Amino acid sequence: MSAAVSASTTRDLRALLEPLATLGQADTAFHVSVIGAFDHEGARHALPRVLFSGPPAAHDPIRLAIFGGLHGDEPASVLAPIAFLERLAAEPERATGYELAVYPLLNPVGYVNNTRVNGDGLDLNRLFWCDSAQPEVRAVERELTRTRFDGLITLHADDTCEGIYGYTRGHVLTESLLEPALRSASYVIPRDQRALIDGFAARDGKIEACFEGVLSAPPGQRPRPFDLIFETPALSPLDLQIEAAVTALDTILDEYRVFLAYGQGL
Ligand SMILES: [Zn+2]
Predict the structure, then answer these.
(1) How far apart are alpha carbons 5 and 19 in whole angstroms?
(2) Are residue 92 and residue 133 in the same domain, yes or no?
(3) Residue 74 C-alpha to ligand 1 middle, in angstroms?
(4) Is residue 212 included in any domain, yes or no?
(5) Residue 262 Cα to ligand 1 middle (Å)
(6) Tell me: the pLDDT tens digits for 70-124?
(7) What tens digit of pLDDT does each residue of 76-86 get?
(8) Beta strand 165-168 with 206-207: parallel, antiparallel or unpaired?
(9) Domain check: are 108 and 213 in the same one?
(10) Which residues form the domain of 10?
(11) What is the CA(107)–ligand 1 centre distance, in A?
(12) 119, 110 Cβ separation under 8 angstroms
């Protein structure tokens, strides 16, 4: 690192990831590892993963993946999954019946430089399932292929929105997962009530469409897992964005249990 690159223009990855390392050492329920590593401008960057199995339930474990930091300039999306994991250490029963795989930092170079794009200047969230050679995309695609998750949750922060909002596919999932997640998180930050958000038609902060190439399940995976994107307004105070996202994650875990119980007649 050159002397010109000061601490004020870059972020400290070691300080960021320290809570994860501490969790992995202090609590055997957390398994912290790296799903990929690559070099950029002489520095080695790693993509961390934390596995956590909640207390068992009567049903088969539900496998969920939680992603953050795909855009490097959205720190709430990195800090919220870490805060979520720290709370699970104190209250593991919040994840009863779940096997969670949490990927809090998918774009470490972007995070360090505070840029949306990665080290090659690319928006990673347009490159999934189109043979991208970007190491961040390949590592996540490997994970998604190897573990057939039941659901994917991706966190983002949007500096053009006026409140929290989200995307998911299909009316049933929108009403059974996204709606309750937005409702509970709206006690922390209100919803974006505009009819058009990020170029999509929206209702009460809910969008039922998405861009091509976003992080999603492998195209051939059947049955399709649920796929939900939760966005916080990036200009809101960081602690509120984290609280809203953690609240949304907790609610999705609670509601998906209920959703499956109805669906399977448990
Ligand atoms: Zn984003």
Answers:
(1) 25
(2) yes
(3) 6
(4) yes
(5) 33
(6) 999 999 999 999 999 999 999 999 999 999 999 999 999 999 999 999 999 999 9
(7) 999 999 999 99
(8) parallel
(9) no
(10) 1-157
(11) 11
(12) yes
